[in-house]
Please model this.
Amino acid sequence: MPERPRRADGATRTWIRSELASARASTDPWLALERAHIVSQPYAMLHTRVHLAMLRRAIANRNRQETLGQVLRIVVAGPGSLTGRYPRGNTGTTAMGLLETADVPPDLAQLAL
Model:
């Protein structure tokens, strides 16, 4: 894992907040939530905030598997970010394993170092 500051810079925080706002306004929010997750992983508070947004969406969708998956991920998100032990490129949903890695989309590569 590359060394990252524990607090995201202003541009990164603004970008993540924008993705979360897009998710709230969308009828299909998961892509925006997944993108926000990939970028937020190094930052404990932002990472946890994204999982809370995913949990709210899973509850609204009455998706029991995703709801339970998000509860687990909320527990481990902060510590994983603080220790640098998070699966790079993981979308944060139960469609991917908890520790499964993936390629970071090219348009997110600069944000998700």
